[in-house]
Specification:
- The chain is mainly alpha-helical.
- It is about 50% helix and about 5% strand.
- The protein is built from 8 helices and 4 strands.
- The chain has a two-stranded antiparallel ribbon with strand order 1-2.
- β1 and β2 form a beta hairpin.
- α2 runs antiparallel to α6 and α3 packs antiparallel against α4.
- The chain is elongated.
């Protein structure tokens, strides 16, 4: 084994890289936020606070509804991890459940679960799968040489020939191909009534 051979990554590093690759192909953070949003919504209606000998119960008459909303948010969060194609439905359902939790579950778990449900649902709706980057450089797609040959600049000879054709085709330019014919300019702006009437030479 040579000194340049890199050491094999540890088990922790390999698991971390695999988890990163798995996380990048799905709305992971949206599912995590939606899952966390369900915890305060289904916890507070069944919790109680003790102050000395005074016990304060935060349960409501619709405790079962709070439990259902919280469990549904947890299920939606897990669905976003393993069923990424339902992200639009899951995000919309999470937002609606967060709105319903306001009157049902202690103002949406004292606003905490409500805000987390809205943020997680918005992240799920906005998430889109990434596209692989094209194999290109400076915006030009890489080819097997045919594209480069087609896009090669013209040779100087062809450029000069094209310039000669353009010069000959201009209305006021010299056409050297007809060297025997005298050159007569088409510009009559220099004529005046003294030289000719209406731009025509006088007959006399």
């Amino acid at each position: 084994m040579s000194a340049e051979t890199p050491a094999d990554p540890s088990l922790f590093v390999r698991l971390r890289l695999q988890f990163r690759a798995w996380r990048g192909t799905r709305p992971f953070w949206a599912g995590l936020v939606v899952l966390i949003a369900g915890l305060p919504i289904m916890y507070f209606p069944y919790a109680h606070l003790t102050l000395g000998q005074l016990t304060i119960r935060m349960s409501t008459t619709t405790g079962a509804g709070s439990l259902i909303i919280g469990v549904l948010l947890v299920v939606l969060g897990i669905s976003l991890w393993f069923q990424k194609h339902v992200r639009t439905f899951a995000g919309t359902a999470a937002i609606l459940l967060g709105l319903v939790s306001l009157p049902v579950s202690n103002f949406g778990g004292f606003i905490v679960g409500f805000l987390l449900a809205l943020i997680g649902g918005a992240l799920a709706i906005a998430w889109a799968p990434g596209e692989p980057e094209p194999d290109s450089r400076y915006g030009v797609p890489a080819g097997n040489g045919t594209d480069a040959a087609a896009a090669a600049p013209e040779s100087p000879e062809s450029a000069e020939a094209a310039d000669g054709m353009d010069a000959a085709a201009e209305p006021g330019g010299l056409n050297m191909s007809k060297s025997n014919e005298p050159y007569e300019p088409n510009d009559l702006s220099g004529t005046s009534p003294v030289n000719g009437a209406n731009g025509r030479h006088s007959a006399g």
